[in-house]
Amino acid sequence: MRTKSVVYTRQRKKKIFRLAKGSYATKKNRWRMVTQQVQRSLAYAYVGRKDNKANYRTLWIIRLNAAVREEGMSYNRFISGLKKANIVIDRKMLADIAVNDNASFKQLVAAAKAA
Predict the structure, then answer these.
(1) 16 alpha carbon, distance to own chain's centre
(2) Spatial separation of the C-alpha atoms in residues 81 and 94, rounded to whole Å
(3) pTM (two decimals)
(4) Which of 55, 74, 80, 102 is at a distance of 20 to 30 A from 39, taking alpha carbons?
(5) What are the sequence ranges of the domains in the chain?
């Protein structure tokens, strides 16, 4: 007796159709268009996650540069001074300190200037 794959095929297709939900025109209800759109969307999502990390790093550097310039120093001298002073804090935490805790950030700038 021949086995039919209807149930499994429908389950597999439903999973892809769910991923294509919200797409424009026939990209949400025609099988060939759906598969193409989902493949493209997943590829862009992967690239977007990488871009997001770069965008956040850029934001932290911009915030640090603004905060350091208020103290009369440039960003690259600040980072160089921190490295010479053996202060290992990543840019995310430095930007957070600059925004939320001004007193301790001024101490970090002073330590970078001293080094």
Answers:
(1) 26
(2) 14
(3) 0.74
(4) 55
(5) 7-114
